């Protein structure tokens, strides 16, 4: 079944961040609240969010956001959040696993590994992985 067409960009949500957050479950929305604000401040002016997941990144509540140009990782570490950005380039590999409750995504690029784990919305984790693989190919 094809994905529905994305909604047009709204002046109040030019990155479609709110639309992506709306796909999360209640607990993920609550746990990612601080990270969503940080992500909104870090996105480029014309960058658009395709899908995101909430889990644990760098030992804290965090998010992985797949946009039209990169994967952005942010956590809510007090005073100095961890932020990492991976572009869609040849050599970026994403691996995933899941059990009956959570999923994890492992991104490998140039000898570095970035992991977001304890993702409660497993279907969204699968969408992130598929999107990244498609954009890298």
From TrEMBL:
<protein>
    <submittedName>
        <fullName>Unannotated protein</fullName>
    </submittedName>
</protein>
């Amino acid at each position: 079944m094809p994905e529905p067409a994305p909604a047009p960009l709204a002046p109040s949500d030019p990155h479609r961040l709110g639309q992506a957050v709306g796909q999360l479950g209640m607990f993920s929305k609550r746990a990612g609240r601080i990270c969503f604000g940080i992500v909104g401040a870090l996105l480029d002016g014309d960058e658009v969010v395709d899908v995101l997941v909430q889990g644990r990144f760098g030992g804290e509540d965090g998010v992985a956001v797949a946009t039209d140009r990169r994967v952005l990782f942010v956590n809510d570490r007090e005073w100095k959040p961890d932020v990492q950005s991976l572009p869609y380039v040849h050599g970026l590999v994403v691996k995933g696993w899941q059990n009956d409750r959570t999923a994890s995504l492992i991104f490998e690029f140039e000898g570095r590994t970035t992991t977001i784990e304890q993702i409660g919305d497993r279907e969204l984790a699968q969408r992130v992985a598929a999107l990244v693989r498609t954009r890298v190919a």
